[in-house]
User: Fold these one by one.
Assistant:
Number 1:
Amino acid sequence: MPNVENWHLKRDVAYPYEGHRPARQWAIVFDLNKCIACQTCTLACKTTWTSGKGQEYMFWNNVETKPWGGFPLAWDLRILEKLGRQDWAANGEYLGKTLIEAAPPTERVLHFAPKDEDWMYPNIGEDDCGGGTLDSGAHLDSLPHDKWFFYLPRTCAHCTYPACLAACPRKAIYKRPEDGIVLIDQSRCKGYGECVRACPYKKSMYNPWTRTSEKCIGCYPAVEQGIQPQCVVNCIGKIRVMGFISPPAVARADNPVDFLVHEKQLALPYYPQLGLEPNIYYIPPIHADPQYLEQMFGPRVHEAVARYKELHKDPEAAGLLCLIGGTERIIHRFTVKAGIAVGYDEKDEEILRVPVTETPFERAAFDEKLGAVRNNNP
Amino acid sequence: MHRNSSPLGFLPTRLLLAASSALWAACGTAPTAPAPVALPTTELTELAVNVVTADLSRPDPDAAFWRDVAPGLVSLIAQPVTAPRPEITTTSSIYVQAVHDASTVAFRLQWADTELSEAGHLGEFSDAVAMEFPMVGDKLPSVMMGAKDDPVHIFHWRAQYQRDAERGKPEIKDLYPNASVDMYPMDFKDAPSGGKDDKEAFNPGIAIGNPQSYSKTGVDEIIAEGFSTSSVEEGHGAAGRGVWKDGMWSVVITRPMVIDGGSTLAVGRPNSLSFAVWQGGKDEVASRKCIHMAWLPLKVL
Ligand code: SF4
Ligand code: SF4
Ligand code: SF4
């Protein structure tokens, strides 16, 4: 089996096909400190792509509460349990096995196969706290306290080394060379469900009406026109930005995604130890259990949390965060100068410009012209 | 219907059977159950296909003439070559009979399977059986789905497809009676510009014409040139019908003797075939199957 380079794990990993990085790689960065679980993203995807028969249960984008939530049921615990304890070296190299390396000889990918009841509770565990038990009412009078939860919005990660693609016996799944989006060819799929079994993130879903498997398409029709996906542009919390991520050696500090992932090392892949080089990146929540975060995001998470806490001192990062959610278009380059953040499209034409600190307006309490007292309405 | 898994369910079923046979007797038309054919214990070395004077146009596992044809045992093992594959052999033998009427060949295939699986729900798979023939005939391709430029012709029967043919392709409400769906927006695409394509836009497999997404008649004809290459072809009139009873599948697949552009059988010419069985209840699908590891010579008499 070929070895391919996985920079999340700082080592080569086994993969059934040779590595061919796409010309550029679709990626989303999420700031988990800002997600409010409004599920607007979920519904934006649902109404755009999965309103057909057989897609009733599908949420290509879902938002679950950690630690107790999961769609399908306990997808994360079940695959972690199968993989067993694995370790990281102090230098950030992964010493354990990936799902492909840990597969028994009869399988291509170590996996668990979800049954239909596993897909029936998309909101299970919503808003349930982790961190100890309480006999009666709580007084959370010091920080940090041990009660925590956070919201985890998830799409397909359009992995560099997709397990779904590796597992498909019909080679019906392909990764587009132009943008790294992973698609299931709906004319070749025979509904064997091998991708549904193999994807550890459980982002490939079987359609019982068309009898083929379907998954998040990365909103490629929008992306081809320089527009970010539906779940990104509709995000109420403005927690998401979609762009293209470079491998570390060729990262550009003025590319929003590279800036957050490589330059500032604020955003991390989730469950990188599974070995797929997933391309959704999370700015970790700063008030969650550090051990839990380490399991989910790897050992670099503690530095990322510390850096996020210092972010207000970084005008460039603050500027970029102001651009996020400000435009539908994909920002290929950004600058922050003299308190103004500017985003540019692929042709390097300016697409938005925002002040990093908004100018406050003061209005007198009484409107002389209308002869009326102003309240807080605009 | 055939689930005698609970001891409580057993007694009423027996009573019901007794009552219904009494009724048949009263009408004077008691159906004659096909006499059980003794199953062989030694491996078949050549499958003889005898002529029958019977109507082979409709595949019938209970047809009387099967009682006169000795079944042959063909051993199967868990597909051992390509992952994913079963960990254990779930179906260790298949019992094979074959007859012809000069234009159609009928095969009756029987194997033990403790549960009937027709798929439908998420994460469920169907019981199935397949027969494979070399396309050319003289030179045998790899028994594992053929090889490049050495194709095989496969006849694939699935319990799920038979369910489609007999009871209709299940709607979501058939599969999940408690499902609540407000509406499928595309069903309201009645504007002058809203045609069939609009309505199917959210059924991607159907919209693109994937044979997988349409209601099936029972048997798929497939041409393959090695693993991962199979493609469902326009059928040549093959048909299938299976009955699951007492932990045993009995499936008849009929195919034309001569198929232009496909595998062709002829009297006196060396022919071969091979088999694969899937137990849906054991999550078998695609390469997760039990197969016969060699070509079995076939002699049309
Ligand atoms: S997240 Fe799952 S479905 Fe998406 S590319 Fe990765 S393995 Fe495939
Ligand atoms: S990228 Fe598009 S298809 Fe994928 S989850 Fe977001 S909205 Fe849905
Ligand atoms: S729309 Fe944004 S804030 Fe709302 S749940 Fe989705 S990711 Fe979170």
Note: The CA atoms of residues 46 and 59 of chain A lie 6 Å apart.
Number 2:
Amino acid sequence: MISSIDIQHVKSEFPIFDREIQPGSPIIYLDSAATSQKPRQVIEAITNYYEQSNANIHRGIHKLAEEATKAYESARARIGNFIGARSQREIIFTRNTTESINLVARSWGKANLQPGDTILLTEMEHHSNIVPWQQLAQEIGLNLAFVNVLDNGQIDLEDYHSLLEREPRLVGFTHMSNMLGTINPVADMTRAAHAAGAIVIVDGAQSVPHFPVNVLELDIDFLAFSAHKMCGPTGIGVLYGREELLEEMPPFLGGGDMIKRVELTEFTTNSLPYKFEAGTPAIEAGIGFGAAVEFLESVGMENIRLHEQELTAYALDRLEEVPGVRVYGPAADQKGGVMSFSFEGVHPHDVAQILDSLSIAVRAGHHCAMPLHEKFHLPATTRASFYLYTDKSEIDRLIEGLYKVKEIFN
Amino acid sequence: MDDLYRELIIDRYKNPQLQGSMDPHDYSYEDDNPLCGDRIRIDVRVDQEGTVTEALFSGEGCAISQASADLLVESIIGKNLDEVKKLSTEHILELLGIQLGPVRIKCALLSLKVLKAGVYGLEELEEELL
Ligand SMILES: Cc1ncc(COP(=O)(O)O)c(C=O)c1O
């Protein structure tokens, strides 16, 4: 099979892979679901902004401020285009996925939900798509319902449809699980939710970085994602929202930038998207985010998806070979590049520590999905996750590392 | 790695010497680290002078947490409670014979935390450990 991307070329774009953790052994980075590595283009865009155009944006009437504003706003436009938004007004910069979801809970939720209303989530949500709703539920007296996850790691669609009969006002689910790798049938799920009269928020933290996501085709009302998981910097994320919904929503934080006019006792809000962006943002991060999207587009999201599908199938095959290893989640064709596994008789911390000594970076813990781990009766798992720069030889090294774990603990 | 996974640690993890529970006991406490699911319970019996006569641990978790519990429990038998209260992080690291990073040190210290919470009361303990 011819690989969909030129892996050596892609890897060479990431300066961190030049680093040798121990002499002669470059890092094998299998923790991209936590955060991705950053290509040179992104690092340079940030440095270039600081060296050439550093200024506060939007209000300045000078050359640097104009350049900075232009770079920041063209990043917004590029990101909007990347997910198929109709307008840049629908792209709100936040700090990350978590803040994006909180914005919807605090703004849309408070304005639209009444005591006794139901919010429907799933058992495979990241804590960031559970806790903001728990907080809101406590505050105004909402019911939270959770769609069952099947043993094979897929959403129980029958349960989903029957829970929709409770007429939830809002349905929230992840596009791709950061523990199981499950890719959910978003288009079908949004269609059913809309038919039941609900608004839909999709957690795109793991999907937008890894495959093409189009908010119009999927008919998503709100989409949250983070730059740092898609080759961009930390400190910036996006909330996409349908313009009609955003227009009706009250502002989230108050302060500079989000206002049109302020008097001592009242203010009028600015237009979209600025209404939701109070204070000086992470300007360099926004610009870096734009560069990250440009980089991903140059490789091609379809190519990235194909590459990761190939890796996923290969990794599942190889992991199954190792006695005592059990991988959670669906089969390769329903799964993104996230392998959470248990190792009989060895705690994930011990697995991760031994792999680390071989320069292999994986994650051990509950991956911010404690309810899901509880469901599978697991205190924790070890997780290896892939991205466009991961190659098969690194999976081979992982497997060798797991045999080493076995040797030490036998 | 072969440093971190000294034979002693792997051996105590696989063949703990003082695993179990006692009822009745004079002191007992259980706690967990929800981040990784490590869980330790320690039961202690003391004589009239407050000297530890018997101690056992039970629980589950990583090799570091379980081995350190086994070694800690072993190390307090014959010690007076006043001495037990004074045990420090260094004591655990000496027993294990390794250095640990900030995440793994929590695994190693869970047993000490449980032991001290049992013989001390948790509040005093938190002041002391943190
Ligand atoms: C599915 C999912 N949702 C939400 C988040 C939270 O992202 P952030 O920490 O960038 O807000 C993550 C990242 O860990 C994730 O994997």
Note: Chain A touches chain B at residues 346-350, 353-354, 357-358, 364-366, 370, 378-380, 408-409 (CB under 8 Å).
Number 3:
Amino acid sequence: MRSATRLIFMGTMVMAASTAAAAPPSIITQGKGAAIACASCHGVDGAGNAQAGFPVLAQLPPAHFAKQIADFKAGTRTHPIMTPIAMAMSAEDIESSARHYASQARPKSEATTVDPAVIARGKNLAINGAWDRHVPPCFKCHAVDGLGVAPAFPPIAGQHAAYTVSQLQAWKTGARTNDPQKLMKTVAENLTDDDIHSVAGYLATLGTREKGNE
Amino acid sequence: MNKPIGYVLCALALGGIVGGCGKPPPPPETTEAAPAATAPVAVAVDPARFTPPAESEIPKNEFGEAVLLGKNIFVNTQQYAKGFVGNGMNCANCHLDNGRKADSAPLWAAYVLYPAYRQKTGQIDTIQSRIQGCFLYSMNGKPPALDSKEMTALVTYHYWLAKGAPTGVKLPGQGYLKVPKPAQKPEIARGRNVYENNCAICHGANGEGIKARGEYAFPPLWGKDSFNWGAGMHRVDTAAGFIQANMPYGLGGTLSDQEAWDVALFMNSHERPQDPRFSGSVAQTRDKHHDENCLYGRTPEELAASLEKQAEAGTAAEKTKPAPEQLEGYSPAISH
């Protein structure tokens, strides 16, 4: 990982930006012990990394963000990289990083060259679902624009396809179990691999809202 | 590979339903992808049910334009028929999957049952006057005129969804489920508990719904932006039927009969907009229009007592008279 060079670069950017907006908290830019600087993977702007599967964090509702860190700590959600990072975060780190990322713009994912027919199929699933197979529309729970319904329903529009695929698979296989009332697991269980790839491809093409989460 | 299976199901479906199979069988995923062992939803979709045409089949002509406008009004009433709506609801909030879902009072099953005599209005209702009722009660609004652009588009959408369905036949999936009376008398306190554990995440701690960027993402269940006291959903039995088949959203069929009744009673024990038929006093309006399973002008104890009385009277009457829904030309939908 070229995180060191990237961090230096980030650091310069942060200094340039900090004259205009409030500086991001140091947990994001510097990290703290085992909590590696969030920016090295998620960016200061929360745009993540499409190739590496590091998720977009921009505009996650702070309550949902804090819940995910708590779930990593509790083990109801596990990941070899994020679990140790979450374990090392204090309540204050969680609060300040959540607040910072919630206020960032959420552009579409940059790596989205997928077949238009696949995208059309994904779009149909997101908007209409497939009730004959017990799949409700994604956009009923994640809002008509896919940008989420705070506090419990995160934005999914603009997310990197690789990350969306990994989460849907994780619910389907039972590796991720932290969703309230099994709402998301129930959806994922009825999705085919084809559904998962097309809906993830479509979602990556969305997400253009400029300003922070309300 | 899958085709023969589709046709076999279709052939079975023909018992009673003529024309429902004129179209090709459902896409192969229907039979293949549903993981039989793990499917968490208890309400299995009966393959014998009528299937409305797919949205992609809307014709690309003037007729198709009216179908599409009707669909838009139905799904996003707030935007496409704003002037006729007095609350925060859209038609599709109670008729899921854009009016297609079985056990969610689907439009294809409704269309073929009108004109019909309805006890609520005491007259022959056409599909148009039925839709006007929805605006007056469920949408707490002002009905569009019979010859308005909105009414024409809505009727066209209903008609198109019913393509190939036989008229005058109560199709499986029509209306809402009738949930059997639970073992224990429905109770508000238990209902509150069901609500907090299963519903509040979407409908809010106070039934107020949740908005995202100015629009309701999850509709309100009571209060000023919800359906009024004249709407069918204010009846406890009707609400229990809707809820058990369709709620929590995405988890239809998971609540027990008892939970469905308890939470329906809890939901309908709250304030909501006045019945537009209100005249004189609540007691007078109740006596005139609310001889039914509801909490309009009654305490839960009074409701329980009145239901017991009705049940006794009902068993005597049932022996001599067929249930309204068995009578030709009677709408099985009791109220709206």
Note: The longest helix of chain B spans residues 300-320.
